[in-house]
Amino acid sequence: MDLTFTPEQLAFRDELRTWLREHGPAGALPPEPTDEDEQWAWRRAWQRTLHEGRWAGVHWPTEVGGRGATLSETAIFFEELGRAGAPLPADVLGILLAGPTLMVWGDDAQKERLLPTILSADETWCQGFSEPDAGSDFGAVKTRAVKEGDEWVVTGQKVWTSGAQYAKWCMLVARTDQDAPKHKGLTYFVLDMEQEGVDIRPLVQITGHPEFNEIFLDGARIPDSMVVGGVGNGWKVALTTLMNERAGLAFFLQVRLRQQLDRLVAEAQATGRADDPLIADRLADLHVRTEALRLMAWKGLTAIEQYGQPGPEGSLTKWLWSETNQLLVQLAVDVVGSEALTGNAGWAFELLRARGNSIEGGTTEIQKNIVAERVLGMPRGR
Description:
By secondary structure, this protein is an alpha+beta fold. The chain has helices at 7-23, 36-52, 71-84, 92-105, 108-119, 234-271, 277-307, 313-336, 339-342, 347-353, 364-375; strands at 125-128, 144-148, 151-158, 169-175, 186-192, 198-203, 212-223, 227-228.
């Protein structure tokens, strides 16, 4: 793993830094609102600004509106967003997951219809993989799609669907063959969320925010033209989505963590708590962990460039990130004091939200199993 940037990568970074100075938090970007709906509109407007500067979907090919950036340049993009204190685009799922999946598996009509509106944030996406009794285990997916003429009629339930309340489209995996082996009876669809038969119910969390949703599907219809990758190939298509999710997640998580840590260090210095050796020791530990996450993200990138797919370090990243983020917000409470819990300091939301970090995106227990079996070569526990 060589972290020395090439002249081309340095030029890419410098161009982005110049643009962020003019359009980011230090330039024209207004402060982030706290209301969830207003925050979504704010991030959507930010994505449109990125799109106007050709910085939305930098890794997309130039012929579909991207910059054709390499994986390393894409990593630089995320790191520079974090360094500038700029937010991520609103439709991360569309840019990182749906778009790249459609480029691999979609037909020409699907690409022409769906790709342009992702980058511009005119239409946003959610991911309909998880189910109440299946989690992200595709073999246990029960949502059914039955062919009627040139349409598919969908019945079932999805859960933990981020951003469903704002989404126009859903990456939906449904069972289309009850008799086929579990992973061979699935099909990958693009579901129009704006129709009868799609009922979105918010899951209000301990934070008071309905970040996730349940989706109840009762006779929702999908035209045959919105089958992606062919009937019965849902498992293969979904793996493409998940591989892109793992690749993008590492940099997303470490950038967000670095922003939070920088904020905490500034508050500790402003209040004089950084002079407390115990506090300083915990801040140093968080710095080491965050830097380790950054290097692991680059290591994962190297694996993708060499072997074409991410390695098991993605599980290590998820495990370390969830643990580190929970330690960080707890330290924030210790540094800021009761003010952290009043909401005025902004840490109360982060403290409550962090409780879910070790569950979402694959629980810590699952990540430990993956590390034990695939990294350490230990026997399967079950």
